[in-house]
Amino acid sequence: MKHKLNYSRTQIYQNCLYAMCIHIAAIPRLWEVSHERSWDEISYSFQSYKSTCGTISFDQQSDILVGAFRKNDCVWLDGYPQKNALTFFLDSDESVCKLAQKETLQYLLITYEKKEKKNLFFTKTKKLDIPVITTAFWSEGDDIYSSDDENSFIENGGDYINDICIPKKDLVEILTDDYELTPIELSFAENLYNLKNNNQTEISRDLFSKIANMEPEGYEAFLSALSDFHFKVI
Q1: With the CA atoms of 114, 118, 123 and 127 taken in that order, what torsion angle do they form, in degrees rounded to the nearest 10?
Q2: Which of 23, 67, 123, 129 could form a disulfide with 37 if both were Cys (CB 3.0 to 4.6 A apart)?
């Protein structure tokens, strides 16, 4: 049975987009934690949020959103490796399941060892990489649905969506404090957000020249994040 959640596809996309722009703006200074957020092709991923990691895939051509989270202290984890992560999408459309399999779930793999054959002196095993999640959600139009009701969704890892789906003004304030953003970094994040919303694929070095005074590791991580975000530096 599917449950309608109190979020919208537009809201999730815009706020995740803004959160990623803030993250990229801070990478030159905080390059050690640059891996905690990424936007690769169509999928936005995060690590280490209240013991939760997750990925949200945005297929803009078909207006489909698919997300899956893994909360590391959730009882749902006890069901793996026998449990199939796709059971969280049983009440969704085929297009949602395909996007989940092709994109979303590929970022949430855990390696298990499967016993294949027992010989006299040893047991042969095979390593399997399988997706492991504790909750999932998807869009139908602008509405968001999950196999979990709202309370279960939040308890099983969906609190990230609950926390990020707030008015942009409040989100800016929270993220600015979390990352201790300078005014220059915040200005760059706003410009990057506007470029992305206008489907721009090129970014001038002049736009980030004021925050380019960084260590080589930070600069390399910064350029890599822009490339993954589908920006070409000119």
Answers
A1: -20
A2: 23
Nearest residue to 136 (alpha-carbon basis) of 81, 82, 74? 74
Place of tokens 């957020």: 37
- How big is the chain by its Cα radius of gyration, in Å? 19
Residue ranges per domain, the chain?
3-107+134-233
This prediction's pTM: 0.92
Tell me if 229 sits within 8 A of 39, measured CB to CB: yes
Phi, psi of 171 (to 5 degrees): -65, -45
Strand positions, DSSP E, the chain: 3-8, 37-40, 43-49, 52-59, 64-71, 109-118, 123-131, 135-140, 143-146, 202-203, 232-233
CA dihedral 176, 233, 231, 39 (to 10 degrees): -50
